[in-house]
Please model this.
Amino acid sequence: MFYVFTKKMLGKNRTRQVLLFLWILSLGLVRGQVSYSIPEEMPKGSFVGNIAQDLGLDLKRLNTGKARIYTGDDTEHISLNKDRGVLSIKERIDREALCEQTTPCALHFQIMLENPLEFYTVTVEVTDINDNPPVFRQSEMKFEINELAQTGSRFVLERANDEDVGVNGLQSYTLNPTDHFVLQLYSDPEGNKNVEMVLQKSLDREINDNLSLMLTALDGGEPQMSGTMQIQITVLDANDNAPVCSQSVYKAVVSENSPPGTILTTVSASDADQGLHGMVSYSISTKGANSMFDIDSREGVVKLIGSIDYEKQKYYQLNIQARDHGGHADVCKVMISVNDINDNKPVINIMSKSKEISEDSEKETAVAILSVQDPDSGENGKVQCFINDNIPFSLKSTSSNFFSLVTDNELDRERQKDYNITVTCTDEGVPSLSNSVTLSLHISDVNDNAPVFEKGSYEASILENNSPGLSIFAIRAQDADWNQNARISYMLEESTINGVSVSAYVSVNADNGVINALRSFDYEQIKDVQFYVKAQDGGSPPRSSNASVRIIIQDQNDNAPQMLYPVHTGSSLVAEMVPRSADVGYLVTKVVAVDVDSGQNAWLSYKLQKTTERALFEVGAQNGEIRTIRQINDKDAVKQKISVVVEDNGQPPRSATVNVNVIVADSFPDVLSEFSDFTHDKEYNDNLTFYLVLALAVVSFLFIVSIIAIFSVKCYRWRRERMCYKSNGHLPVIPYYPPLYADAGGTGTLQHVYNYEVCRTTDSRKSDLKNMRPCSQSIISLNTTGTLTLPHAHREKLIIEDSDDQVS
Ligand SMILES: *[C@@H]1O[C@H](CO)[C@@H](O)[C@H](O)[C@H]1NC(C)=O
Ligand SMILES: *[C@@H]1O[C@H](CO)[C@@H](O)[C@H](O)[C@H]1NC(C)=O
Ligand SMILES: *[C@@H]1O[C@H](CO)[C@@H](O)[C@H](O)[C@H]1NC(C)=O
Model:
């Protein structure tokens, strides 16, 4: 007989079991033992063993001995059928509950019989069946692993537990999937099988941030049982990704002058990281571009903030830095091209210009050189230039953007002396812009115009007996040129009048063209003065023109009528004889007078001043004829004296008186007796013929001498070159016969007599002639140098009075 003590029995009920055993031993009643083996979990009533047979007991004994099972505690897994003597399962037996992990596991109990008291020990071994799967305490395990975790990192997993033992116990683990982790088992010092998960391939949150693994624990039973646990791995983000621009280059086009705020483009960069690691902020990293462009740091919208000018910069390249909060960055390039807008006027530069050009400039003379630029490009920068119309200039394009302004016609300062030349340049943009400059050009003078007199010929009249130095009138010439070229000097053209230089008669004021008489003119000697005046400008060479001037000398009533017949001598008396029988209207005589003046001043009229017999004679007012107006009777005196007054028509009138003696007689003896007191008159009459002949001879002689003298003087003057002007005293005084005189000659017979009388008068009546003023008596002026220069003659003058004895 042997006892098998279970651990439990030894442990738990040790004290009681030992006591019971000792009691049984002391009685010496333990008769035998038997063992059975059954699997666990047998249903109730299942047969365990036939103890009657195995212990050799009689069924009666079982009944009489009141056999029963003694377990020592209250648990009874096995029941005893006394009638059949077999053991059967009373309660389901769970090995794991009974023995936990202890093997082998057995139930120990006694079968007790009374009368006599007997013990039988029964051991029922309970064998394991695979009735428990491996079990994890929790269904899920969570890990948070940084994506940067090193490979080889270990993560301890929870073990599974399988209550079964032996081959039915936990045998192995599997993990699925195994991309990143593998399992590793190891036993700790206590012999526990621990399981670990080892990272063998690094994680990437950006690829997979949520790993779900299945850990399966397997036992070795048949059929095999397993337990599973979910492993949830959350991959934690690390800032292992830099932002990445969505395009390597962003292109934008903007028109110049776009308003600030214009959106150019939007830059976007993505960062695979999470949270702050993936939050991208943008900034412009190009130096100096921040004044021009701005970027929204969150949205990446690139805006214009400055004023954009195509002419300053045509392209911009911006580097935009996209940076996450962990310090990683990328650079996105933005290329901005600027579109040209026609916002610039052409710029006209005057490179050189003349302020003035001469009016005789050749055609194609350059006046100015211009350079024209338009900062715009393309059509906006193409420039065309033109000048205002109707001016004698043209614009020539010399090379691109250079223009020269040249004359293209003849210039005439006298027509236009200033030009405003407006150069206008227009570009071809839409709308086009233009600019203009005005050049003022002065045409300088050239002496191309001669002075022009207002009239080609001038005529003026002056009364004779003028005072020397009298200004007569002014002539005037104009010169279209300018300044010195238009400064006119007037001067006399040299000529002679009656052999005398014209400069002896008149002078011209060089400055103002006033013509002065240099002497007192005598109409009876010179009726007009004709000469030329030259007007000359101050140009170089000078230009000149001339005008003819005629000064008409007007008559003044400065000469009294002169008696030609009858002639009075100092002592002799001439008498006209009238027969007593003369009829009414008998022509007694004719009074003849002349007046050297002309016109009205020489218009003579005759009238009686006094008569002895008032009614006997009358004188023709026009013709001077003395006629009887009635029959002579005895009462009339023999001697009649008639005073005839001859008066000219001048203002005031001048007159002369002549006495006519008339003898009324029937016969010549009567006359003689009547004129007894006229004896000397008789002698006078006797000598008359002689005197007449003599006078004629003398006059003829003097005439020839005078001709010779004039000729000689002319030659003399020619030689002296007018050094000194001397009055020509030998000039014959030729009396002037007014037209009236010829009319007066009513009776032809008398005319010859009068002619003789003229000659005689010329000779004998010096006193009358002295009243006339020949040219020799005028005042002339001589310059001290001896050269006659009229303009200044009146300033320094040497007055030479000619003596009277030069007058013939
Ligand atoms: C991970 O996956 C599980 C199941 O697939 C899901 O329930 C869980 O919400 C996920 N976690 C995250 C952070 O996505
Ligand atoms: C030129 O311009 C000036 C100033 O504008 C003006 O005084 C002058 O009269 C102009 N001359 C001509 C010839 O138009
Ligand atoms: C006056 O001028 C004309 C030409 O203009 C010339 O023919 C003439 O000879 C000049 N006369 C004098 C007296 O100088």
Observations:
- The first strand starts at residue 30 and ends at 39.
- The first helix runs from residue 7 to 11.
- The chain has eleven helices and 53 strands.
